[in-house]
């Protein structure tokens, strides 16, 4: 049992793009007692939901894996295309597909959801690398609706020993009669750099904004504008904080002077090398 808990923690902490390697290493370290197939499937489900993993299929088939889009065991709905996909959670591949039945679609919700999905999809094309999104809507009361926006993007560069992901979850609560609402979200980023080392950075922030609109088109634009502004502000904050860290914390970790307390004369390095060669002879 203890081995399974260790294996679970290791797998759940896997950086994006490195899940299969971590699983292989866990199996090699812990052996057959580390985790059985049923337990592994459960951990994979939790990992994908936490990281908003995206499974791909033939052509432009994609589906974002989350608790909100899960329909059954390894079955997920892609609200961007109203398609249902069966997914291989280890390979992150779509193995079969189907459509959402007409009875499952609420026309009243779709009237606002579809323009919002289109607007968010356009935003991702210019802002989030390899991004995918889904917008789920529901009626929560008289003239009250709620929309859930999930965004996930990743950039993998194993050749240069780094990978990263960007995810965000947004809840949009609206009063249809008053044509106003509130947007609340959480944006999270993670970067892993592992050339001759192992450095990970994880950061997240909470966001909120108010919106008003006149029609379904302006509703979609107002929500997307709020999402875009909050994510861009968070991105600027990350860049500024990293610049400060590089100039302060990281610089203070470096030794200002060698142990001899004498500055090395780099312009005389050739002379030093020649002197060593002559001395050795």
From TrEMBL:
Coiled-coil blocks: none
Superkingdom, taxonomy of origin: Eukaryota
GO CC aspect terms: cortical cytoskeleton; F-actin capping protein complex
Keywords: Actin capping, Actin-binding
GO-annotated biological processes: actin cytoskeleton organization; barbed-end actin filament capping
PROSITE patterns: F_ACTIN_CAPPING_A_1
Quaternary structure (record): Heterodimer of an alpha and a beta subunit.
Name the record gives this protein: F-actin-capping protein subunit alpha
Organism placement in taxonomy: Eukaryota, Cryptophyceae, Pyrenomonadales, Geminigeraceae, Hanusia
């Amino acid at each position: 049992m203890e081995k399974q808990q260790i294996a679970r923690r290791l797998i759940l902490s896997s950086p994006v793009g490195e899940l299969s390697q971590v699983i292989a290493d866990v199996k090699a370290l812990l052996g057959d007692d580390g985790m059985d197939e049923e337990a592994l499937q459960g951990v994979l489900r939790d990992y994908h939901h936490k990281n908003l993993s995206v499974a791909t299929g033939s052509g432009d088939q994609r589906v974002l894996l989350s608790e909100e889009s899960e329909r059954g065991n390894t079955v997920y709905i892609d609200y961007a295309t109203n398609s249902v996909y069966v997914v291989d959670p280890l390979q992150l591949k779509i193995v079969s597909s189907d459509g959402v039945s007409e009875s499952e679609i609420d026309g009243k919700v779709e009237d606002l959801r579809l323009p919002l999905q289109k607007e968010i999809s356009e935003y991702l094309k210019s802002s989030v690398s390899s991004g995918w999104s889904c917008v789920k809507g529901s009626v929560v009361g008289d003239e009250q609706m709620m929309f859930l926006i999930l965004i996930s993007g990743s950039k993998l560069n194993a050749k240069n020993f780094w990978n990263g992901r960007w995810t965000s979850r947004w809840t949009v609560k609206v009063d249809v009669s008053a044509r106003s609402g509130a947007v609340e979200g959480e944006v999270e980023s993670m970067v892993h750099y592992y050339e001759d080392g192992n450095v990970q950075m994880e950061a997240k922030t909470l966001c909120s904004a108010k919106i008003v609109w006149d029609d379904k088109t302006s509703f979609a634009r107002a929500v997307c504008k709020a999402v875009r502004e909050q994510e861009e502000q968070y991105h600027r904050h990350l860049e500024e904080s990293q610049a400060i860290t590089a100039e302060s914390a990281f610089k203070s970790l470096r030794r200002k002077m060698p142990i001899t307390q004498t500055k090395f004369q780099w312009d005389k390095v050739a002379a030093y090398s020649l002197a060593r060669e002559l001395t050795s002879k």
